[in-house]
Design a protein that fits this description.
about 160 residues; alpha+beta; Aminopeptidase; seven-stranded mixed beta sheet; about 30% strand
Length: about 160
């Protein structure tokens, strides 16, 4: 299966919105309240990506379909020196365990490194064991930071190799 990674462009917002919505439904049903997930829609997700212009977003394209995405940038957390952030990574369930997520993360970390960051962080739901195992296999580990709003999350961090 040939999968191409590329930077997203503003014209991808609708497709990335559908992907984001679908991944949230597939991944978080049973981990987050149904009432929260039921308020989501592909259109709301698309508007979020339209407003950002799909900046700092890498997409995985297979057979002309966007099947994964990874957002990255500077850390949004105070107190972390020279740290980038993986702001979200999603791969459609039927395309998981094919190496697409690893490739997205590798490219995003490479982009963060090229911007001068020597660490990267991300937030993960405390109850999302699959994601925690995925991030752990990539060298991320919890650094002790937690937040409870809007969800119970823990922060993972890793050094970026240059």
């Amino acid at each position: 299966m040939n999968t191409i990674l590329r930077y997203a462009c503003p014209e991808d917002a609708e497709a990335v919105g559908r992907l984001h919505y679908t991944c949230w439904q597939e991944t978080y049903r049973g981990l987050l309240p149904d009432s929260y997930l039921d308020r989501m829609s592909p259109e709301k997700s698309a508007r979020m990506f339209q407003s950002s212009g799909c900046r700092n977003l890498i997409v995985a394209v297979c057979g002309g379909e966007i099947v994964g995405e990874c957002g990255f940038g500077g850390s949004r957390d105070g107190g972390l020196e020279n740290c980038g952030e993986i702001q979200g990574i999603y791969v459609l369930k039927k395309f998981q365990r094919l190496g697409i997520g690893r490739r997205l993360m590798s490219l995003a970390l490479d982009r963060l490194s090229s911007r001068g960051y020597d660490k990267a962080c991300l937030w993960v739901l405390k109850s999302n064991e699959n994601a925690k195992a995925f991030y752990g296999a990539l060298g991320f580990s919890p650094d002790g930071a937690e937040k409870t709003q809007p969800f119970n999350e823990i922060r993972y961090i890793t050094d970026i190799e240059r």
